[in-house]
């Protein structure tokens, strides 16, 4: 029973970490897209 609890807790921790990582990648991609857009419009690169 204790092993199952440990496995569930570990899986929950890894899932939470993965969600945060994916969210961070999305924010980075959005920032890069905005920078390219500004450069294409002739604003500061």
How much of the sequence is in beta strands?
under 5%
Residue-averaged pLDDT, rounded?
Answer: 84
- Rough outline: rod-shaped
Largest sheet: none
Helix content: over 70%
Family: Belongs to the EcnA/EcnB lipoprotein family.
Protein name: Entericidin A/B family lipoprotein
Signal peptide: 1-23
Keywords: Cell membrane, Lipoprotein, Membrane, Palmitate, Signal
Topology:
Elements: H1 2-40
What report would you give on this structure?
This protein is an all-alpha fold and 45 residues long. The chain contains one helix and no strands. It is rod-shaped. The termini are far apart. Belongs to the EcnA/EcnB lipoprotein family. Pfam families: Entericidin. It comes from Brevundimonas vitisensis. Keywords: Cell membrane, Lipoprotein, Membrane, Palmitate, Signal.
Any descriptors?
mainly alpha
Overview in brief:
By secondary structure, the chain is mainly α.
